Amino acid sequence: MERLAFGDFGLHAMTHSSGVLDWPAPLPSSAKYAFQYLFTQAKFGLMCPISVSDTSNHVLARYGSEALKSFLLSQDLDVMWKGAVDRAGVHMVTASDPAGEERCRSVASVRYHVVSAVLLAVEGAELGDAGRDARRLLLARQVVTHRIEPTDPFAANRATVDAEIDDLLLTNADVPLARASALLST
Known about the structure:
The protein has 9 helices and no strands. By secondary structure, it is mostly helical.
């Protein structure tokens, strides 16, 4: 069913890119909802990962790179399940078994965290540029580090940087953009 939803029908990408179902342009939202309604009659459990993928594409299309867009809007499941999530080198980690809803849910979870990190980073940078609190940049880094990236929790440098970030996040004082940027570059 995941191959039908993501591969054949492209339910996650049909309003975001052309070529889905051989349509020359992105389909209108009404067509997407009609397809989703029909699909849920057969397999309701896959609608959550499809919806997360579809809605996250709105955010990532606005702020993501072209490589990220082509990856996330792909109808080739092998491309979707593997590959870089962003230019920082964060990789999606999914099961290698091509079957199962669990894999779809895992991908949806990663996408949720990627969207959260993107929005936090954009808002943090905008606030920091305006001379206000840039701590959302630090929160974005923590989401990437602790929810997306496979990491060694005992790595010495990581623990030091995490402790500094945690201290800044738990204070009431604004975090200047320069300080947040310095921590992000370590």
